[in-house]
Amino acid sequence: MKTRAVLSLFILLSLLLTSCLKDNVEVRSILYTEDEYAAISAVLNLPNDRLSYEVKLPQHMKNLGMTAPVLSDAKATLGRVLFYDKQLSRNQAVSCASCHHQELAFSDNKRFSEGFNGELTLRNSLALGSVANFKSSYEGGSTFNGQQQFFFWDERAHSIQEQSALTLQDDIEMGMNLDELASRLSQHEYYRVLFRKAYGADVIHPAFITEALQEFINAIVSTSTRFDDGISAVNGDPFRNFPNFTQAENLGRNLFITHCSSCHGANMSISPEKVANNGLDEVYEDAGVGGITQQPSDLGKFKVPFLRNIALTAPYMHDGRFATLEEVVEHYNSGVKMHPNLDFRLRTEDGSAPRRLSLTEDEKEALVAFLNTLTDETLVTASRFSDPFR
Ligand code: HEC
Ligand code: HEC
Predict the structure, then answer these.
(1) Which residue ranges have their beta carbon within 6 Å of ligand 1?
(2) Which residue's CA is the closest to the ligand 2 atom numbered 6?
(3) Which atom of ligand 2 is nearest to the CA of 277?
(4) Positive or negative, the Cα torsion across 261, 266, 267, 273?
(5) Residues 170-190: tens digit of each pLDDT
């Protein structure tokens, strides 16, 4: 009896001791030597400790079989610095953040954005902070739950790494040569330190730059909205009334499920439809996916964008044609145009004409009220996603 008590006391003590040790190790896991940190601190406002970029998914997303991306904090930290650095553009005029502002859910408030030499982009800047879309694997493109994920309005990039390489070299956006960029960055001691921490090497390869950007963008995941609180309170069932919603918001949620969720998704986590023609024009100036695949059946099809933080990301659509959510709702209500590729869900039952929803004013307001519940204040204020430059 006595030996047993002593033994359990011993086990308890050793457990306590190891957990203390573990805590201590974590608290003391200082990333940089004094010299390294001095070089970093001269330019950047980063803690001399590991900043966690761990993505935690709420239960309602896990119920869908979603798993959080496993990220390297050192690479994400480097990616964050790169994201905010104007040296990434030819004449050092723009950074990624110039067109992707944190306070606007990493979009901007313009129809078209200004590139490094003042020329306008051909499309509206896309918001970042999606959940499924940004979980891209590093080899063989991006998959999410076995589904391929693509990037840009016409889905021409197969991973964020590829997207970043295209954006950096784009004649309008950043106009940079990747080898020149690598040598430009390697002139700075703080970058040599950050790349060493992330990749264990002093040589800066262009692929490290784009992969670190990808790691940072994968860390930007929206999970904290009033919608998430609501769906969590009803065991992840989007079809039930959310207790934290007003009557109008719940009406809007129901209308959204009926008219919108077959493309955009009822749980704001996965888009069931990747691309579609949503009837913006009878003749499209921008071919969209068709411009990439050269298939007539893809003309006027564009990425089905995720709608988290939609209240922050005006103007809307690939060309930013709608200034407000009211205009977007009116488009689906009465403005859908006929096009050979118009999605069947936006047509009358016999398929011969665009569908009219004939919503009442209250219903339109309710849809907008629902879209306003998708704003994630945590994401747009989190310091780990903010500009680290002094
Ligand atoms: C000059 C403005 C501008 C700059 C600079 C810029 N972007 Fe973008 N970004 C855009 C526009 C516009 C789009 C949509 C383009 C398209 O679809 O053809 C976009 C799309 C994206 C997408 C695709 C999102 C999706 O859902 O498919 C990602 C990711 C992205 N940008 C990340 C970055 C990163 C990383 C950088 C820096 C290396 C960067 N952007 C620099 C304007 C910009
Ligand atoms: C057939 C699929 C489909 C249906 C149904 C659908 N959408 Fe869309 N939605 C899209 C596509 C595709 C786009 C992008 C089109 C473009 O820019 O060319 C889009 C764009 C949007 C945008 C703009 C997003 C941005 O970032 O600019 C909003 C907001 C939106 N839809 C809301 C709704 C609402 C509300 C409904 C229901 C009334 C709805 N959608 C029904 C496919 C659909």
Answers:
(1) 83, 88, 94, 96, 98-100, 113, 115, 121, 123, 125-126, 128, 133, 151-153, 160, 163-164, 167-168, 173-174, 213, 217, 303
(2) 260
(3) 12
(4) negative
(5) 999 999 999 999 999 999 999
